[in-house]
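Morning!

As promised:
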Amino acid sequence: MPEFPYSRLRRWPDVEADNLQAHDPTDLLLVERALALGADGAATVVIGDEYGAITLALVQAGLRGIRVHQDLATGRRALQRNAEDLGLTGFTAHELDQSLLADARLVLLQLPKSLAELEEIADAVARWAAPDAVLVAGGRVKHMTLTQNEVLGRSFAHVQPQRAERKSRLIIASEPLPVPAEPPFPVTAQHDGLTLVAHGGAFAGARLDIGTRVLLDVLGGEAVRPASPARRPGDEGDRSESEEAEGHGAETPRVLDLGCGTGALAVSYALAHPDARVTATDRSAAAVSSARATAAANGVSERVTVTHDDAGSALPDASFDIVLLNPPFHLGASVHTGAATRLFEAAARLLRPGGELLTVYNSSLGYRPELARLIGPTTQLQRTPKFTVTRSVRASETPDS
Ligand SMILES: C[S@@+](CC[C@H](N)C(=O)[O-])C[C@H]1O[C@@H](n2cnc3c(N)ncnc32)[C@H](O)[C@@H]1O
């Protein structure tokens, strides 16, 4: 059998850089273990395959009918694109549900970053996979903790960490335990009139992040409608007649929560503005399910539309008056601003000229010059010892263009 060409895999549309690869030694260990176990493709499930390295190496080795769950829209696109480039087919994509796991006997897992996400996945495997299912979870040793074994131990009778190899380690979990009647996720919490609902993989869980709270305080105190005059006929992003007829007239700003997580910003805005229609979007499926559940729990589902997408790529140019953004600043385990820049660029594309981006970020990151360059004139609305909130008004011509 030919060696799998791992180096041909691309991360695109995720951030690409010379020091970032589309596979890691854990992928190779998981593939080697699955092949050594003589896995049957139709009973094999892959969870957390970042860019397709595990799935595609197994498909190339002859396994057919593998089921795959990836949380990120970027990872899903990367897997499809890598599969097309390599001419490989024979796997199916699923959400984290019964269709993914029914009758599965081998589950390969790239360990997620959060323990809550691991707990939700371990429960799902114990709940839906075959009674003799084995979960093989792997990660980089430097990111692994003993608590991960404890979490797995709540859903499996046996949890056996293996010897580290190439700075990665596998943990074998077997004999699924009986599960509680109700799954442990999503979880719910109340915050001053806002109910947040969170799946395991959602940013900050059901807590209200402190940065989000600072931005919400500013939104509560500020007139967030754009100060610029109503659009002129023929302006880019002018509303259609049917939109006006539906009641989204010039008085109703079109609002986007970019990277919505559990939907705290989108749903708070909808609650504070009973006429508003809000779009929320995130690249994480766990975030999307959480934001939909948050909208439902607060009775605003009909006015909040949630999409699973990378940086709002499916939304039309110049189609929003206001973008709310609490950008990510961690890429994997290292601090990397590429992910935030990607969302600033998306906001520049999605705002109409004169529209506003309201952003909160860790003050140490000093994003203001970048916001001014990518969006337009940027003013500071609030600065706490930790967080800065800015308003950037989208210039008619993107300053950088
Ligand atoms: C700091 S969290 C903020 C979540 C939420 N807005 C809040 O304030 O609680 C950043 C969010 O951006 C999402 N995100 C990161 N990169 C993204 C991208 N390229 N496209 C869409 N969402 C993205 C993450 O999944 C995460 O939910």
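Residues 203-204, 209, 212, 257, 259-261, 264-265, 281-284, 287, 310-311, 326, 328, 339, 342-343 surround S-adenosylmethionine (CB under 6 Å).

Hope this helps with the figure draft.
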